[in-house]
Specification:
298 residues, alpha/beta, Rossmann fold, 7-stranded mixed sheet, 7 strands
Length: 298
């Protein structure tokens, strides 16, 4: 009996030692594996509404810069600027349905708010701390929507040629054009004849040939119905707005007054007009826009 007890005790000690060693090995393995898993989760971002490619490397005092293109545009519109902004890491947004990308989830339902949700998710999952957000036209609206979110801490927001009230770009208001845009969208996307008319209209424009007509229609409708002006006093990040100027004193002065009035309630506002330029400022005046972005990075 004594011998059996001794053998049992030795066996129990061996099992305890084995369990202790196994536990130590498991803890050591987890200690190594968990950071790798964390890095993998940061590196991976999949969306059904947009794609984001990265270029460049952050040097000392460099920034993460998110570039959001406008209606029907892709990330290539920013290419004239990137070489002059070396030392920063660029996050180039490509919205599904624009510039050759399939519409995906953007083919139906609301558009702008879900896109802003996805961009906010990207900032969070990629651990972008205080990014600079640059948006052109519709991308400027998305940049403002991000800046107004309580969970986004942007270093600076730069809006290129876009007013807070989308309808104001056409001389109207969200109250006036918004209803008309909704009715028109219902016809152009909800009927066979309307869809054909919309497809023909979109494909007749150079920018729209590689875009999904339904996404274009939904974007235009929501821009016509959206007015962010009442929310501008809540914007915490510095805001730089870059109006495109035709290049004549007679037209430039009213354009500047229009932008100053529209953004007047913004707490930390800078207006930096650029001209002569059409709506695509980054292509018409890349050096001037690059200089503005550089100044915002300092």
């Amino acid at each position: 009996m004594k011998r059996i007890y001794q053998e049992y005790s030795v066996s129990l000690m061996h099992r305890r030692t084995f369990l202790q060693q196994a536990a130590a090995l498991l803890l050591a393995t987890n200690a190594i594996a968990l950071p790798d898993l964390a890095r993998a989760s940061v590196a991976r971002f999949v969306s059904q509404r947009l794609a984001i490619g990265t270029r460049g490397n952050r040097r000392t005092k460099g920034r993460d810069i998110i570039f959001i293109p406008g209606l029907a545009s892709g990330p290539a519109i920013w290419n004239p600027l990137l070489a002059g902004l070396e030392g920063n890491r660029f996050h180039l947004v490509h919205i599904d349905g624009f510039a050759g990308r399939p519409a995906g989830r953007n083919a139906y339902g609301p558009l702008l708010s879900p896109l802003a949700d996805e961009l906010a998710r990207y900032i969070a999952t990629q651990d972008l701390r205080r990014p600079v957000i640059v948006g052109h036209s519709m991308g400027g609206t998305l940049a403002l929507m991000l800046g107004l979110r309580a969970n986004i801490r942007a270093e600076h927001i730069i809006v290129v040629d876009m007013l807070p009230d989308g309808s104001a770009m056409l001389g109207g208001t969200a109250q006036g054009y918004g209803y008309l845009a909704g009715q028109l969208n219902g016809y152009l996307t909800g009927t066979k004849a309307g869809r054909q008319i919309l497809t023909d209209m979109v494909r007749q424009t150079p920018e729209g040939r590689n875009c999904d007509p339904q996404v274009i229609a939904q974007a235009l409708t929501e821009l016509a119905q959206m007015d962010l002006t009442p929310q501008l006093p809540r914007l915490r990040a510095p805001l730089t707005v870059v109006p495109a100027l035709p290049g004549s004193a007679q037209l430039d002065a009213p354009q500047i007054r229009r932008y100053r009035s529209a953004y007047g309630s913004t707490p930390r506002l800078t207006i930096r007009p650029v001209g002569p330029s059409g709506h695509m400022v980054m292509q018409d005046q890349p050096q001037k826009l690059m200089d503005i972005i550089r100044s915002c990075l300092q």
